[in-house]
């Protein structure tokens, strides 16, 4: 759809078949990003984003009145949700049935924007095999005193550890402070085994360099270190989706990067929606993700748990 004429106030806008109300409402003050801009951003990025974020349980960070106003995290489908937002039924950890949201196609992204979503967070498994993860995430969380160069080095260290065990690793700057190192999995192991592997590997790295890393959540132990947050891999946990905007000043985007370009980045929040749209003309830094899937087997779990 064409952008509204300069100077005109569009009463509404249709993006990916979904009516976007208040398209001129500024949701990010810095950069003056409007709701219409966001809807169009997601329409254009949908191909690359949905390859990673589609067809899996989804949580949204919704900020219906914009970034400056209160936001809330939503996991379940609510009353009167638009049909464009997909649903997936699964069991909560306590065995209770629950209906989660899921992205089916570009219209689901537009429906989320219409509901005020500023962040998309995903499970590590797909709807059709919801108990068997197909992506492993190491969420590197630096203490505020840790510089980005150390986070980059940590990402390379995690990459090396994964590759040594036969997995492949891709890097994403989160739009916040850290880097996510993502391994595409052949879906064979369940959440319990994948989380065991993630915990074992994070623990092994922390034990090998305790001055720089921790693998436990304790804030006190994090001082001056990087927390290798492996807990994203537990059942029911989420990680921010590739190409999601963040509800932070300047509309930073969680951006997949190549390992080569990561080496030259100075922060995790350097890409905004405009930068990411420009990047669509360049080769996909995560090309090869699907072909790179590899399984986590029993021997690998035992290897990381052995000290
Ligand atoms: P950063 O690089 O700044 O750490 P991040 O996305 O990794 O960015 P974390 O604080 O490490 O942010 O959060 C890890 C994950 O926890 C988030 O990506 C999200 O999926 C999940 N999360 C965050 N807030 C909530 C919440 N209120 N409820 C449930 N899960 C949440
Ligand atoms: Mn993080
Ligand atoms: Mn974290």
From TrEMBL:
This is DNA ligase (ATP). It comes from Aureimonas phyllosphaerae.
């Amino acid at each position: 759809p064409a952008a509204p004429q300069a100077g005109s106030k569009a009463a509404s806008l249709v993006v990916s078949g979904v009516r976007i109300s208040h398209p001129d409402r500024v949701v990010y003050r810095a950069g003056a990003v409007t709701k219409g801009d966001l809807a169009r951003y997601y329409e254009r990025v949908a191909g690359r984003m949905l390859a990673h974020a589609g067809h899996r349980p989804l949580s949204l960070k919704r900020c219906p009145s914009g970034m400056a106003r209160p936001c809330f995290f939503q996991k379940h489908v609510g009353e009167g949700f638009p049909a464009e937002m997909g649903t997936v039924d699964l069991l909560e950890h306590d065995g209770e049935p629950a209906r989660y949201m899921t992205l089916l196609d570009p219209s689901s992204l537009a429906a989320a924007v219409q509901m005020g979503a500023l962040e998309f967070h995903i499970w590590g498994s797909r709807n059709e095999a919801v108990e068997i993860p197909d992506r492993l995430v190491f969420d590197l969380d630096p203490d505020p005193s840790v510089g980005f160069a150390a986070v980059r080095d940590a990402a390379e260290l995690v990459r090396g550890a994964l590759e040594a065990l036969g997995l492949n690793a891709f890097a994403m700057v989160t739009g916040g402070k850290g880097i996510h190192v993502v391994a595409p999995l052949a879906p064979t192991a369940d959440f319990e085994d994948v989380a065991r592997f993630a915990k074992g590997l994070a623990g092994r790295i922390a034990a090998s360099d305790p001055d720089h890393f921790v693998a436990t959540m304790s804030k006190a132990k994090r001082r001056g270190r990087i927390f290798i947050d492996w807990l994203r891999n537990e059942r029911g946990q989420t990680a921010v989706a590739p190409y999601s905007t963040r509800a932070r000043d300047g509309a930073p985007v969680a951006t997949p990067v190549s390992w080569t370009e990561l080496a030259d980045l100075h922060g995790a929040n350097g890409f905004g929606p405009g930068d990411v749209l420009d990047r669509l003309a360049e080769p996909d830094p995560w090309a090869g993700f699907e072909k790179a899937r590899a399984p986590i087997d029993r021997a690998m779990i035992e290897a990381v748990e052995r000290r």
